[in-house]
Amino acid sequence: MLSSLLFVMQTYDIHPDIIQYVIGQILHYVSCEVFNRMISNKKLLSRSKALQTRLNLSILEDWIRVNNLAPKLGDHFAPLVQLLQLLQVLSLQEDFPTWIETLKKLELLNPIQVKRVVSAYRFEVNEPRLGDEITQYVLQIAADTEKMVRRQMMDRKRERPLTMISLIDTSAIQGNGASSARTSAEVGSSSTTTPLTITPALLTETEKARAKQRQREQEEEATLLSETKNSKAWLPFKIPENMAERENGSKRVFVPLIPEEMMSLLDTYSSH
Questions:
Q1: I need a labelling partner for 47 at 20 to 30 A (CA). Which of 144, 206, 238, 255 fits?
Q2: Closest by alpha carbon to 202, among 174, 231, 240, 235?
Q3: Is 79 helix (H, G, I), strand (E, B) or coil?
């Protein structure tokens, strides 16, 4: 499917940046879906399944390289790769210092996901078990993370009204500073002060800023507390500045063309 899609986009001369974005969005979806299925299904949380999945994933990585696509497309697999690495080395953690060093290399996995792997891991025949010290540490870190995030959520809810007022006041001062500027002599001679007014447009911009901030906070909280990845999230997209430019520096002129077959079809319909 990926090869067919790439062939069609290249045949229709789609801009390389847009091709990279489309392929990246698909790989992001595939990576998140595989990640979610593995971490949600206890039968897949084993070393043998991790090895099989890693071999299949290497086929996609080879496909990126063979088709001369940007190597950074492979970064979409990074969380999944770290999950597979954890599954492959989990039973090899002989002591607590070794476990700490392993966790330092798995920075894309949150404590809740690590807890899920440790709690639901399916040990195979004669596979050594994790020590109690490691298990208790993982459970404690996950519990502390949940408490910390929920405490931050409560603190933000209490602070949001004050932050909103200060944001409005600051914006109002900046917006009315030019029109209400006075010289020191005028200020000294005036016995009254002009109150700052907040326009509807200013409130709209403030509400937008507040909504964006709240959305970022919710995304951060969801990332820290969720076992799964959001496969429906859209990657940032930027329209290429010059749609006519190509990788070799040449520019192409696009001339609209209607194929002869289509013209004949139109003539046929117009004659009836």
A1: 144
A2: 174
A3: helix
